[in-house]
Automatic annotation (TrEMBL):
Residues 471-636 form the W2 domain. This is Translation initiation factor eIF2B subunit epsilon. It comes from Brassicogethes aeneus (Rape pollen beetle). Belongs to the eIF-2B gamma/epsilon subunits family. Component of the translation initiation factor 2B (eIF2B) complex which is a heterodecamer of two sets of five different subunits: alpha, beta, gamma, delta and epsilon. Subunits alpha, beta and delta comprise a regulatory subcomplex and subunits epsilon and gamma comprise a catalytic subcomplex. Within the complex, the hexameric regulatory complex resides at the center, with the two heterodimeric catalytic subcomplexes bound on opposite sides. The lineage of its organism: Eukaryota, Metazoa, Ecdysozoa, Arthropoda, Hexapoda.
Length: 638
């Protein structure tokens, strides 16, 4: 072990936390091109300072700060905090972990798992998290849960928040169902879907005496994690975000054997995260009003003026300027007859005379020349210069020339309109009238959708896959399963690795447990049909089935799964007219002899077959044999 690694594991009993610094999205363009998310000023204090202060006050002793971009800037800031002996440095150690190859939140956790820094339960914090929660009781509660439920992987922390509250972000609306012990049974992010109907799995109501449906929650982006969390990310490469992780565990609960719990904060406990401009604005409001006390903005470096205005150090404001609900950084200069409302002006920016700025964000080192207007959700990146009498509305503007540029997007020598790939500028909710109109347009489109767009199926349709074609997603899933199993058999890969691939594909295509069972068995049987029906066919079929025994055992765990298996046999046999009674008898006999399916399951399935069909006639000799054997056994017992 290297000296650095030894240093990281010195404190065996330290309470640990992980902060993933990067957001891996473009919510804060164009500012995020020059300013790391962690150092984005929030009421004139870098966001990361609030997060570290919260963790320190919450009882964390060692934090791993994982970053992929702007690495030098973040390291310099952390070293500066240590040199200045910030309060959190007295009680908490921060280790900056670097990996420039990671491209997602999940990649970061997989890298941390490989490094082996974590030693027990830990706190997982997403970018921009700000809170005043005492974490030690939450860790203790999670530890008690894991003693009762060995599969408890994560506890999600939510805060009670009523509908329409300023702190709630439409993009992060969540609907959750839990049982009486707080175990999450259903979790769906409503703000990221256009679905108009929500379908709850019936089993969550049948299997739990008490189910609570919660929509009055705000995600704090704080999670209490068991040591199994990092290996789960490593084993499931499709887990790219925490929401992916939660969704994957709920979908694969029977397979992975892991569960998720929730904890809802009440009273004066607060939690939130800066994930977009809406939450940036909200947290600015809550910080300057001391809702997150004792975590708060710097009282020393800010001046609190009338009309809800905050100014940083050395800010110069002319007497004729009209300011309302504005936060300004250090060294900002505001000229004569300037009108600024509901906006953020970052440090070292100059606003000349007779300028109007409304519902916008002006980045650092900008120059807005006289008689210009910056309106309705505009975001100016670092170093932008807006020319005299220029009108800018609902735009993202950067100082450097983009690779692809339309002449209409040139606003000046150091001002270029940034057009995103989807032609939809990032959400500056409540800062931009244009965003409200955009969301209204989406809602109108939703309202025009036909009722047939909602997907639903009857119990009969769900129980049989032989009478209707599979939806596109299930076809894609089936194709991937065949590819994985074929490659695994040819290359003699371990079946455990193939199971992981199948589970990942299941998550990617959002198929049910029943569909997984059905298509896995069908794929194995289809593979066997690639061999010619010669003298060696059945020995080759037996060798194929024997190779996949670990997969069969993994998926055929209960009677419901056995019925799925038998339906797959039915589907393959009825879809291939050249398959004889001998093939059907051999497959059923194999599954029965190896205890993959029980006699009860076979007879129950047989009772559902069409008595007039040729397949019923093919199966009948085997079921007759089962019943005769049972009668003979009963006679011997007598």
């Amino acid at each position: 072990m290297s000296n650095k690694s030894k240093e990281l594991v010195q404190k065996e009993n330290a309470v640990q936390a992980i902060i993933v610094v990067d957001t891996f999205d473009d919510e804060f363009l164009p500012l995020s091109n020059d300013i790391p998310h962690a150092l984005l000023p929030l009421v004139n204090k870098p966001i990361i300072d609030y997060t570290l202060e919260f963790l320190s006050l919450g009882g964390i002793e060692e934090t791993f700060l994982f970053c992929c971009t702007h690495i030098d800037a973040i390291k310099q800031h952390i070293n500066k905090c240590v040199e200045n002996a910030e309060e959190w440095t007295q009680t908490m150690k921060v280790n900056v972990v670097v990996s420039e190859s990671c491209r997602s939140f999940g990649d970061c956790l997989r890298d941390l798992d490989a490094k082996g820094y974590l030693r027990g339960d830990f706190v997982l914090v997403e970018p921009g998290t700000i809170s005043n929660i005492n974490l030690l009781p939450l860790l203790e509660k999670h530890n008690k849960i894991t003693k009762i439920d060995k599969g408890a992987a994560m506890t999600l922390i939510f805060q009670e928040s009523g509908l329409g509250h300023i702190s709630r972000c439409p993009k992060e609306e969540v609907l959750m169902a839990t049982n009486s012990s707080g175990r999450v049974l259903f979790h769906k992010k409503l703000g990221t879907t256009r679905e108009r109907k929500i379908e709850f799995p019936l089993e969550i109501f049948l299997e739990n005496s008490t189910v609570s449906l919660r929509h009055n929650l705000k995600d704090t982006h704080i999670s209490i994690c068991s040591p199994a969390v990092l290996p789960l990310f490593s084993d499931n490469f499709d887990f790219q975000t925490r929401d992916d992780f939660v969704r994957g565990l709920l979908m694969n609960e029977e397979i992975l054997g892991m569960t998720v719990y929730s904890n809802v904060l009440k009273g004066g406990q607060f939690g939130g995260a800066v994930t977009n401009w809406r939450t940036y604005q909200t947290l600015s409001h809550e910080l300057k009003n001391n809702y997150v006390y004792p975590v708060q903005p710097s009282q020393k470096h800010n001046s609190f003026l009338k009309n809800d205005v905050i100014a940083g150090q050395n800010a110069t404001i002319s007497k004729s300027a009209k300011l309302n609900n504005v936060i300004m950084g250090d060294n900002v200069k505001i000229g004569e007859n300037v009108d600024i409302s509901n906006s953020f002006i970052f440090s070292n920016t100059k606003v000349e005379d007779n300028v109007t700025i409304s519902l916008s964000i002006v980045g650092p080192n900008c120059l807005v020349k006289e008689k210009s207007k910056i309106l309705a959700g505009t975001v100016l990146g670092k170093g932008v210069q807006i020319e005299k009498e220029c009108f800018v509305e609902d735009a993202l503007v950067q100082s450097t020339r983009p690779d692809e540029l339309d002449s209409r997007d040139v606003l000046g020598k150091h001002a270029f309109r940034l057009v995103l790939d989807d032609n939809e500028p990032e959400d500056v909710v409540d800062l931009a009238l244009a965003r409200k109109l955009s969301r209204l347009h989406i809602d109108q489109n939703l309202g025009e959708e036909s009722e047939d767009d909602g997907f639903s199926e009857s119990e009969d349709e769900r129980s049989s896959y032989t009478h209707s074609p599979a939806p596109d997603d299930t076809k894609l899933f089936f194709t991937e399963v065949i590819d994985s199993l074929t490659r695994g058999f040819e290359d003699k890969l371990q079946c455990d690795n193939l199971i992981l691939e199948i589970n990942s594909s299941r998550y990617a295509y959002n198929v049910t447990v029943k569909e997984v069972n059905f298509f896995v068995i069908k794929a194995i049987l289809i593979m066997s049909l690639r061999q010619p029906m010669g003298p060696q066919y059945f020995s080759q079929l037996q060798r194929l089935l024997q190779y996949f025994v670990p997969i069969l055992k993994n998926y055929l765990r209960n009677e419901s799964a056995m019925l799925d298996c038998l339906q797959a046999v039915e589907d393959v046999a009825t879809s291939n007219e050249n398959l004889t009674e001998k093939w059907v008898m051999f497959v059923l006999q194999y599954f029965y002899d190896k205890d993959h399916v029980t006699e009860d399951a076979i007879l129950k399935w047989y009772s559902t077959l069409d008595k007039k069909s040729n397949f019923h006639a093919q199966v009948k000799p085997f079921t007759d044999w089962l019943q005769e054997a049972e009668e003979a056994s009963s006679s011997e017992d007598e």
